[in-house]
Structures are given as C-alpha cells and as structure tokens.
Amino acid sequence: MLWTIAVILIIMWAAGFLAFHISGGLIHLLLVVALVIFIYQLITGRRSI
After folding, report:
1. How far is CA 36 from CA 7, 18, 20, 48, in A?
2. How many domains does the chain divide into?
3. Residue 28 counted as domain residue
4. Beta-carbon contacts of residue 24 (< 8 Å; ≥ 6 apart)
5. Would you say residue 49 lies in a domain?
6. pLDDT digits (tens, 9 = 90+) for 11-47
7. Is the four-CA dihedral 31, 36, 42, 44 of positive or negative sign?
8. Are residues 36 and 29 in contact, defined by beta-carbon separation less than 8 angstroms?
9. What is the domain range of residue 31?
10. Cα gap 39→33, rounded to integer Å
11. 6 and 34 Cβ atoms separated by less than 8 Å
12. Whose C-alpha in 19, 35, 42, 45 is 20 to 30 A from the C-alpha of 1?
C-alpha cells in the first residue's frame, strides 16, 4: 500500500511540476511526508498489512 501511495504521489508531483505551478507546493509537501513515513517504516522494520 505504501508503494502505491508513493507512486501516486510521484505522478502527482510530476504533473504539478509540469502543469500546475500553484498546487506544486502541496504536492511537494505530500511527497516529503510520504518519504519520511517510508524511511520510518524501513528503520523500524514494521510491515503494513
């Protein structure tokens, strides 16, 4: 599930970077949050169901 969210956020980030400059900041923020959560789960070793 985390991979799905990460892929969706990367696609949204690319769309925001190329087309929607106004919402680009929000998409970047969501991408950073997803990256932090991903790194946290890697460090703690937890698996989401």
Report:
1. 15, 24, 24, 15
2. 1
3. yes
4. 13, 16, 17
5. no
6. 877 776 677 665 667 767 777 888 888 888 888 886 6
7. negative
8. no
9. 2-44
10. 10
11. yes
12. 19
Name the amino acid, one letter, at 3.
W
Residue showing tokens 């932090």: 36
Q: Please report, for residues 23, 31, 32, 49, the alpha-carbon distance to residue 38 in angstroms, rounded to integers and kept in the order given.
A: 23, 10, 10, 14
Q: Mapping DSSP to helix (H, G, I), strand (E, B) and coil, where does residue 33 land?
A: helix
- Which among 11, 3, 41 is positioned nearest to 27, based on CA atoms? 11
The residue assigned the tokens 């460090």 is 43
CA 41 to chain centre: 14
> Is there a contact between 12 and 30 (Cβ–Cβ < 8 Å)?
yes
Taking the alpha carbons at both ends of the chain, their separation in whole angstroms is 8
Neighbours of 27 (CB within 10 A): 19
